[in-house]
Amino acid sequence: MARNLQVDEQVFIPKSKIGIENVEGSAFRQSRVVAVADRTITIDLVDNDGNNVSVGSSAAHRGLGFLIVRIGDFRTEDSLLDPLAKSVLQFSRILVTDEFVRRIDIRTIDELGSYWALNHAVYSHLIFIGHGSPDSIAFGLGEPANSEQLLAALEVEGVQPKTILFLACETGKAPIAREISTSPVCESYIAPYSAVHGADSSLFVQMFLNKHLLDGRTTTVAFKHAYAAIARCPFRIWENGNLKSGYHAR
Fold it and tell me: Sign of the C-alpha dihedral, residues 154, 206, 189, 123?
């Protein structure tokens, strides 16, 4: 969701919101803002008979990019982490073109910090796949990282708020979720409250991305649809240090 949009900005709009047939390729259309009125923007569809279309600003994204970070542990990479990362990657590639999706495999927090410092500007969504606890994320090399250490790697100069998803058990609990969700790097934080099977994590993310990208729902609305659709769904969504919806918050 893009806030305070201005005329002449370039935005990404879900095709489903502007009446464009959407059966293959990217779920988004990049267009120029030609007018802003309260919570509605008008975009220029210059190669679609020159017609302008008005749409709610909540459907617009200033930037679009998905970074999938598989955090290796040497033990479950082949049996769990890689298959889960591949499922998220391939589903994302169906929804947006390859140039907007990247997967990296790391085993240390220093690798995360080095990559993020150079590339954070091109991503709107950050998806972590690994193992967690209520107060930390496990790395294959080095000690588990707590919220302070993770934010030290992510809060780089000039970073803009991202939608952050953790597919790691128990990382939706307050000790880590509250701290990260209050950070300038985080717009919304989504993670499981308890242990979660990899298949349920994959299904949840696919449902969330389908509603968020293909249907053009806001992050919170897309989360609620995904949460309601899956029987075993221990996920939560946090914003600004507050639990918004999800497990134990119906």
Answer: positive
